[in-house]
Write a structure and sequence with these properties.
Mean pLDDT: 96
Shape: globular
Distance between the termini: 26 Å
Number of domains: 1
CATH topology: TIM Barrel
Number of strands: 10
Radius of gyration: 20 Å
Strand content: 5-15%
CATH superfamily: Divalent-metal-dependent TIM barrel enzymes
Strand order of the largest sheet: 3-2-1-10-9-8-6-4
CATH architecture: Alpha-Beta Barrel
Number of helices: 12
Largest sheet: 8 strands, parallel
Order of helices and strands: EHEHHEHEEHEEHEHHEHEHHH
Low-confidence stretches: none
Structural class: alpha/beta
Length: 346
């Protein structure tokens, strides 16, 4: 029996959000990046996730030399705190040129911008000694089916990823699928779509995926099944754990907040696939409730990690032999209760 391994955790600056949403203003004062980085260190996390402009603000208006200098300054801060950059992702959904998509925009000049921005993101990642680029294909879809040729858009996505792979022979690309929001419907809504797209690229071995719990739930799928599916191909390179209450907007609730059993099964899937043994991180992509006071600002992160570790213990102490006997008898009523009582404790 393989020896259980310890997990490493990370989060991003956006996970200490100020409470603004589409229906109201911030509820907490804005804080600097350094304040957020210090909170990460205080909480004992191991790494930080970055968008390219989290690492280097105003990416588009800086020279290659400026990108290098500012990224190296950030690298020194991370080194001083004993931290690393887990991923870097190009933030392609804020720029006016990507309002109708980035890589799949109908305007070739806009597609060119999206690719160039992505290559600069890779350069920043290199300066941070990070080889994993995450693509959340936020606006790669359409609000109106007739406005785009989805077949042609698949070619655009492959071309963009191929340019990134050619830019750096060491970089790995992890696609983070989501079925909707901000687009009406996305072209790459699930892990199956992401891995199929990866197979069309110039180097499929360097294209994998990132699963987010809420995104799988928004697609009507079980995140645990998505985890097992990705791990079957050896392509789960990062994971965003959170929770989701139904098919609403992306809520990023604390892990296990809405459905503890769904969370338990995600942890079981990670455990049986030995996720983390190759250095992968558990990213807690959670947000504080909008009503959260300043003095409670980090509880969503602390609680999510605590819940995860408690569920790791539950997964490792689950009565597998007893469960297997019930499965052999096809006594799923008893199996169901076994799981419930195990989660409730003695």
């Amino acid at each position: 029996m393989p020896k259980p391994h310890a997990y490493r955790f990370c989060f991003g600056p956006w996970n200490l959000s100020e409470g603004q949403d589409p229906y109201g203003p911030p509820t907490r004062p804005a804080q600097t990046f350094d304040w957020k980085l210090n909170k990460l260190k205080e909480l004992g996390f191991d790494a930080m996730m970055f968008h390219d402009d989290d690492a280097v603000p105003d990416v588009d208006n800086k020279s290659a030399a400026q990108l290098r200098q500012e990224a190296k300054e950030l690298k020194r801060k991370l080194d001083d705190g004993g931290l690393v950059a887990e991923i870097v992702a190009p933030r392609l959904w804020f720029d006016p040129r990507t309002v109708d998509g980035a890589y799949t925009n109908t305007d070739p000049k806009c597609r060119k911008y999206a690719i160039e921005r992505s290559l600069r993101c890779i350069d920043i990642a290199n300066h941070l000694d990070c080889d994993l680029i995450v693509l959340w294909l936020a606006r790669e879809g359409s609000y109106l089916r007739e406005s785009k040729n989805a077949r042609k858009c698949m070619d655009y996505l492959v071309q963009a990823i191929d340019r990134m792979l050619a830019h750096d022979p060491k970089v790995r690309i992890a696609i983070e699928p989501k079925p909707n929001e901000p687009m009406d419907q996305a072209y790459i809504p699930t892990i199956g779509h992401a891995l199929a797209l990866a197979n069309l690229t110039r180097d499929p071995d360097r294209v994998g995926c990132l699963i987010e719990s809420a995104h799988a739930l928004l697609a009507g799928l079980d995140p645990a099944d998505e985890i097992d599916f990705a791990c079957t191909f050896g392509k789960l390179w990062s994971i965003h754990l959170n929770d989701q209450n139904g098919l609403k907007f992306d809520q990023d609730k604390p892990f296990g907040s809405a459905n503890l059993r769904v969370a338990f099964n995600q942890v079981r899937a990670l455990e049986r696939n030995r996720y983390g043994r190759k250095g992968e991180y558990v990213a807690l992509d959670v947000h504080p409730f909008r009503t959260t006071k300043v003095e409670h600002w980090t509880l969503h992160l602390e609680n999510s990690r605590r819940t995860f570790l408690r569920l790791v213990d539950k997964a490792r102490t689950f009565p597998e032999a007893e469960a297997q006997a019930l499965i052999d008898e096809r006594n799923y009523g008893a199996l169901d209760q076994l799981v419930i009582e195990h989660l409730l404790g003695q």
